[in-house]
Amino acid sequence: MRRTRAGSPVAWILLGLVAVSALVIGALRAGGVSTPEERIDAIARTVKCPVCPGESVYESRNSVALNIKADIAREVRAGQTDDQIRAGLSARYGESVLLVPRADGIGAAVWVLPVAVLVAAVAGLVLAFRRWRRDTSAPPTDEDRALVERALGAPVPGAPVPGASVSGEPVPADPAGSPP
Q1: Tens digit of pLDDT for each residue in 127-170?
Q2: Distance CA 130, CA 126 (A)
Q3: DSSP characters for 59-74?
Q4: Residue 54 belongs to what domain range?
């Protein structure tokens, strides 16, 4: 069996197909609630108790939360949709009562922005890794060789040698023996 390289386009396409398939299967299998009681509980889990910090109407036993849950039950039995019930609650108690932001207007940015940032970050990393992985083994220039030889202390052709004059002739030694 022939193996596919991890960085090849075929591997990325296969990964994308697997991810999309998993999302589609997950979305189709997430069937809705079946009874009115389940619907009431599902809506109550997405509405914040206006009195109890950090609790949903479903969790809270406060009288305000119990009244809201009773309102939700009455509206479910009256045939209103989940969105209509949530819209009515946000009109009465304010938009902050919804624990799950709406998927329209500014609320859509709450859902889309993190995903967009994640996709951009992954794309940036892929581009950076590809750039770093590129073959940069060009032959060294004369400038590169001179830099290495200076660093190693070896003589560079054409560079002035210590102890020699500009013309290349040796500098006469000091009779006292001190360095020039």
Answers
A1: 888 887 776 677 888 998 889 888 888 665 666 655 555 555 55
A2: 6
A3: T--SHHHHHHHHHHHH
A4: 36-97
